[in-house]
Amino acid sequence: MTPHFSIPLNLPHAGKIAVRIHDIVEVRANHDGDEYEDAMAIVKRTMILLDPYLRSGENPGAEECARVTEEAAFLGRAMVEAIVDAGIVGDRIGQCIRNYFECLELGVEGAEISLRAGENPKSLQRPY
Predict the structure, then answer these.
(1) How far is Cα 12 from Cα 55, in angstroms, rounded to an integer?
(2) Does the pTM exceed 0.85?
(3) According to the model, what pLDDT value does residue 126 have?
(4) Using one digit for the tens of pLDDT, what is the confidence trace for 21-64?
């Protein structure tokens, strides 16, 4: 099994990480132009989805948690595809992607998909 961090579901922190990813993508978009529109659109959808939990600082009830977690994971996967397509890959954004999936209790997937987003496999931040 892929080494990973296993943390409890934390939608508020996933929202914070989505904001960090937005900031990284926005800097590139402002510098390089329109090829980042798809990535920005997906990141913004993710931020809108997670904003209520970021603001409240709490996870919702179980049924809502399951729905939001599933949608957030779907958006996270789409975000990685858009980031790769736009060429925004790098260690920092890859670490953010891994952390995002960890907050969704998807640590194994996060450890794997973060490499596609450019996380350095030898980073001291990665689980071992």
Answers:
(1) 7
(2) yes
(3) 81
(4) 999 999 887 776 667 889 999 999 999 999 999 999 999 999 99
Contacts of 102 (CB under 8 A, 6+ apart): 4, 5, 6, 7, 110
Distance CA 16, CA 3 (A): 24
Assess contact for 34 and 12: CB atoms under 8 A: no
Please give the average per-residue pLDDT across 71-86, as a whole number. 96
Q: Locate 71 and state its tokens.
A: 């949608």
**Inter-CA distances, 43 with 1, 8, 57, 86, 121, Å:** 29, 23, 20, 13, 24
Query: Which residue shows structure tokens 């953010």?
Result: 96
CA 89 to CA 87: how far, in whole Å?
5
Question: Do 108 and 4 form a contact (C-beta atoms < 8 A)?
Answer: yes
Half-sphere exposure (Cβ direction) of 87: Cα atoms closer than 13 Å: 6
Backbone angles phi, psi at 61, to 5 degrees: -65, 170
The answer to whether the CB of 101 falls within 8 A of the CB of 72 is no
